[in-house]
Structure formats: C-alpha cells, structure tokens
C-alpha cells in the first residue's frame, strides 16, 4: 500500500504547551483516514501540521517531518503545500463578499489552473457537483453565499477546496455544526470522491460513530499522542487499548 | 428595578445635552446664515467674487464657490493620496511587520493623530511647501505639464496640491484607525479559509481587503470629512486666493480657511458674518453627510 502522507516523529508546541508528542502516522493513499479523539487532544493541530496551516497559530513551533508523496512539506513552498492539500474548516466559511461562483473559482484563479472562462465554468460545475451542491445552486451562482443554509455553505466550502483538484483533501470536523441531512450529504460526497477520483481524505472527528461509518482507517489520538491506529472496523470491534475502548463507549468526551 | 429607573432618569439629561447641542448648533448656524442666503440667493454658491464693501449689501460681492471648490478638491486629493498608504499601513501593522516594528508604527500613527494641527501647519509652511516646490512641482510641471492638473507654472509651494498633501498626512491616522478596526474584525475562520486554498500574501491581502470594502469606504469618508473641516494648517499652505482652476499647482481657498481669515473683519462689513456662517453651514452638512454614510458603512462591514 502506498502512503500519501508519512509523519515522522512530529512534535508541536504552542507557546509552552507540548500539543503533539512524537506523532508517527502513515496515511494510506486513496483511502479515508479519520483522526479521532476528544476535544483538546490535538487532532486539529495535527491536521494543520500536515498542510502548514499550523504556522498561523501564534507561538507555534514544529519539529519533525511530514512527508507528502515523499517530500518534506516543511522544506517546500507553504502556498503550494496548502494548494495541494486543501482543507475544509469546522465552521462554514465561504467568503461573504464573493458570489457562490466566485467562491469556487477563487482557488483556480489564484493559481491560474485554467486558461479561459469556459474551462473555469466547467471546473466550477464539476466542483459543485462533487460537493453535491450543483442542483441547489445552479440557478443562483451569482448570489452571495449568505443566501445558503449552513449545511449548503459547508458544501460550498467543500467545492471551493475541490476546485483546486487536490490529491489530498482534509476536513476538520466538517459536520460538527451541521444538521444530519447535510452531514449525510457531506459524508456521501467524501466517499464518492475517494471512490471516483482516487483522492486521499483525512478528516477529524470527535464522534466514534462517524469515524467508523465513514473512514477506512482510524487514528485515535489522546492528549497529543497517537494511542492506536488501524483499520476502522478492527479498531472499533477490537480496540487494542483501554483508552480507545473508553472513548468508543463514550466515556471520554 | 427602582434603581434602574433612577439611573435612567439621572443619566437622561446628560445624554440629552449631546442631542440638544447638535440641534442648537444646527439651528444657530442656519438662523445666522439665512439673511445672507436671502440677500444674495444662489449667487452665493455660484460665484467666486469676494469684495466686501462698507457701503452696503448692494456693493459687496460674496461668492463661496471658489472656497467650496478648494475644500472639495484639497480633501479629495488628501483621500486619494492617503488611501493606498492606509492600506499598506494596515497590512504592515497587522500582518507583515515583526511585533516590535508593528508596535512602533502603530503607536507612531496614534501620536500623529494627537498632534496639534498648527504644528502640521507650521511644518507645511516652512518646510514642506518650499521643498515640494523645488523638488516635486517644478519637475512635475516640466514632465507632465500636458496634463491639465499640472499645466500651470508653480510660482510657489503654496497651492491646492500642497494643502492636499498636508491634509493626507493629517487624516492618515484617522483613516488607518478605522481601516485597522475593520481589518481586525475579520474572523479567524476567513483568514484560515484564504490560506487553506494556498493564497500567497498578496492574494490573501486582496481577499481580506475585498471583505472589508465597506470599512475601507468608511475610512475614506471619515478622512474626507476631517480634511474638509481642517482649518489652520490648510490656511497656512493653500495660498488663500479665491481661484477656480483645473490646475492643482495654483493657489486656492477653502471654506474653513476663508472663515478663519475673514472672521476678524466680518463685523465691519454688512452681511459678511452671515456669509461666513453660510460657509459654516456647508461645512456642517459635508461633515454630517460624510460621517453618516461612514457610520452606515461601518455597521455594514461587521462580519457576523
């Protein structure tokens, strides 16, 4: 099995806090990996360490290596890293001053991915279709994103990320603040992306049920350390660690 | 509950003072302007003549057009010059500079806002205007003389452009303060969104500035309002000649500098005081409109 991301002895401090401790993780290419853990366990920081958004946090210090397709991202251009490994945030955050269309088109425009308007139209349509939003917005592409519901806005953010044609897609608790119907759509969209486009997906969640339901692999993180890592079904049925068992039973929250 | 009511009734008069002051100000200025408007009518706003006479209202000529033109043009120049500097300053202070430089630039701009305007005026009079004449205006006229704005020969450094440049420096701190507040109000999640799609610093700044467009417009309007009302510094550098010219290297006049210059003589001439108050009324209206629109823009610019 090929690995899209290999994390080697990653340590992250935010000011005095040692947030991530000796993280070792291999993310298989073409599968969905869930980073599961209680709040404050460092799972969001781990995600942001894999596309260099962690540098945005004041006082953050990173030691160790994150290799994406064999290359250490910390020696590369951070803008290119973030373009290749796009992320969807926890709260829907489409740019409020841009139209729905422009929100999706912004990435390709910045990085000059397409040559002409026709190709851009195609890419926007493809992205919105893959985010399962096209049918709902195709007649109001020039409206501001504020006309959409929270769940639709989150799918718009997914489309915005997909428009960059990333090989790796990361999602930070993408359904935490969203109703069940929209959550299901996002989960289905993710599964279809992996199946049809061969994208590697990493997502963060604090609900074991969602991790098991959506992912192929689960990394359980607790207190800045990876406690357990394995195939989702095996890890859920046969947790190898007492902490994992407790978390799956809902005793750590 | 009783305490609440007591507090409300004891604070109400003080809040009312603010409103009453404004209404009274507006009323007095309007009341004092009225005779001049009645006597001279539209000519007051359409002519630039200024020749007061002791003989009586018929032989006196008053026109506020040139000062009004000077006020608008110098203030517009100020905003046009200060706007790009405002955006750069906000980006430097908030994003680019290391913390120490950021604090230094930040507090320097705040100090600038607090300086007495006469200090700017003297500096403009003694240093800025002569320097600009030799090193900027003469070459500007020679190189770009074909553009109407620079088509006239700069005889001195005291002209509308100098007033605009000095005003730009003076309103900069206020514009930066408003734009900076807007910029800071952008929620972290949008900043992350921009970076998460791989925006570099330039693209990031572009997206952020687009997001706070109403706040930037408010900043420009407040700057304009302040520039239009500024008196003594402008009076020292604009040349105080009631001219209307498309060339900004010619001297001009502003309403506030007209009031400041003529006020001491006003009691000697019939209607002159009323005319000056009319000028004040125009300034008041410019200020009220600019500030009101700015406030609306600021409330619009709040992102969630």
Features:
heterodimer, A: 253 residues, 6-stranded mixed beta sheet, 10 helices, 27% strand, B: mainly alpha, MetI-like fold, two-stranded antiparallel sheet
Explained architecture:
The complex is a heterodimer of chains A (253) and B (304). Chain A has 253 residues and is of the alpha/beta class. Chain A has helices at 43-49, 78-84, 100-110, 117-130, 134-137, 150-162, 180-197, 208-214, 232-237, 242-248, and strands at 3-14, 17-28, 32-36, 60-68, 71-72, 85-88, 168-172, 200-205, 217-222, 225-231. Chain A has a single domain, classed as 3-Layer(aba) Sandwich (Rossmann fold). Chain B has twelve helices and two strands, in the order ααββαααααααααα. Chain B has a two-stranded antiparallel sheet with strand order 1-2. Chain A binds chain B through residues 51, 53, 56, 79-84, 86-89, 91, 93-98, 106-107, 110-111, 157, 160-161, 164, and chain B through 187, 189-200, 203, 207, 210-211, 213, 303.
Write the layout of secondary structure elements.
The complex is a heterodimer of chains A (253) and B (304).
Chain A: E1 3-14, E2 17-28, E3 32-36, H1 43-49, E4 60-68, E5 71-72, H2 78-84, E6 85-88, H3 100-110, H4 117-130, H5 134-137, H6 150-162, E7 168-172, H7 180-197, E8 200-205, H8 208-214, E9 217-222, E10 225-231, H9 232-237, H10 242-248
Parallel strand pairs in A: 3-8, 3-9, 6-7, 7-8
Antiparallel strand pairs in A: 1-2, 1-4, 4-5, 9-10
Helix pairs in contact in A: 3-4, 3-6, 4-6, 6-7
Chain B: H1 2-40, H2 43-46, E1 50-51, E2 61-62, H3 65-96, H4 99-114, H5 117-144, H6 160-184, H7 188-196, H8 201-211, H9 213-229, H10 232-237, H11 255-262, H12 272-301
Antiparallel strand pairs in B: 1-2
What's the short story on this structure?
The complex is a heterodimer of chains A (about 250) and B (about 300). Chain A is of the alpha/beta class and about 250 residues long.
């Amino acid at each position: 099995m090929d690995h899209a991301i290999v994390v080697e002895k990653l340590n992250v401090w935010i000011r005095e806090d040692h947030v991530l401790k000796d993280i070792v993780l291999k993310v298989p290419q073409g599968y969905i990996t869930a980073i599961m853990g209680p709040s404050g366990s460092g799972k969001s920081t781990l995600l942001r360490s894999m596309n260099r958004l962690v540098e945005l946090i004041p006082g953050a210090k990173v030691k160790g290596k994150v290799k994406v397709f064999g290359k250490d991202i910390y020696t590369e251009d951070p803008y290119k890293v973030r373009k290749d490994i796009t992320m969807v945030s926890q709260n829907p955050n489409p740019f409020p001053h841009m139209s729905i269309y422009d929100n999706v088109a912004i990435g390709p425009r910045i990085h000059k991915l397409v040559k002409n308007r026709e190709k851009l139209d195609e890419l926007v349509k493809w992205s919105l279709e893959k985010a399962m939003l096209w049918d709902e917005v195709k007649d109001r592409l020039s409206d501001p994103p504020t006309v959409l519901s929270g769940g639709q806005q989150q799918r718009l953010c997914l489309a915005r990320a997909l428009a960059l044609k990333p090989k790796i897609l990361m999602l930070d608790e993408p359904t935490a603040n969203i109703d069940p119907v929209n959550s299901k759509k996002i989960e289905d969209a993710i599964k279809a992306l992996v199946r049809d486009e061969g994208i590697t997906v990493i997502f963060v969640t604090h609900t074991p049920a969602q991790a098991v339901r959506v992912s192929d692999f689960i990394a359980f993180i607790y207190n800045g350390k990876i406690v357990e890592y394995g195939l989702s079904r095996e890890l859920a049925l046969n947790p190898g660690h007492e902490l994992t068992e407790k978390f799956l039973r809902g005793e750590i929250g | 509950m009783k305490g609440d009511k007591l507090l409300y009734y004891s604070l109400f008069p003080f809040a009312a003072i603010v409103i009453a002051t404004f209404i009274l100000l507006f009323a007095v200025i309007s009341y004092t302007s009225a005779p001049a408007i009645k006597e001279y009518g539209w000519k007051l706003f359409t002519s630039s003549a200024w020749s007061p006479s002791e003989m009586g209202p018929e032989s006196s000529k008053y026109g506020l057009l040139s000062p009004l033109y000077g006020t608008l043009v110098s203030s517009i120049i100020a905003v046009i010059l200060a706007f790009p500097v405002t955006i750069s300053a906000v980006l430097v202070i908030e994003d680019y500079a290391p913390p120490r430089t950021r604090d230094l630039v930040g507090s320097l701009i705040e100090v600038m806002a607090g300086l007495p305007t006469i200090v700017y005026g003297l500096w403009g009079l003694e240093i800025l205007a002569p320097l600009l004449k030799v090193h900027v205006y003469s070459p500007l006229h020679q190189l770009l003389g074909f553009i109407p704005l620079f088509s006239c020969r700069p005889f001195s450094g005291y002209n509308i452009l100098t007033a605009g440049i000095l005003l730009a420096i003076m309103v900069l701190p206020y514009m930066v303060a408003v734009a900076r507040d807007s910029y800071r109000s952008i929620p972290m999640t949008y900043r992350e969104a921009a970076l998460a799609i791989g925006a570099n610093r330039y693209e990031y700044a572009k997206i952020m500035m687009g997001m706070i467009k109403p706040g930037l417009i408010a900043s420009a309007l407040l700057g304009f309002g302040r520039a239009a009302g500024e008196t003594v510094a402008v009076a020292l550098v604009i040349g105080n000649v009631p001219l209307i010219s498309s060339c900004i290297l010619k001297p001009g006049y502003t309403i506030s500098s007209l009031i400041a210059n003529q006020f001491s003589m006003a009691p000697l001439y019939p209607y002159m005081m009323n005319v000056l108050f009319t000028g004040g009324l125009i300034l008041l209206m410019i200020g009220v409109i600019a500030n009101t629109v700015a406030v609306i823009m600021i409330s619009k610019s709040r992102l969630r």
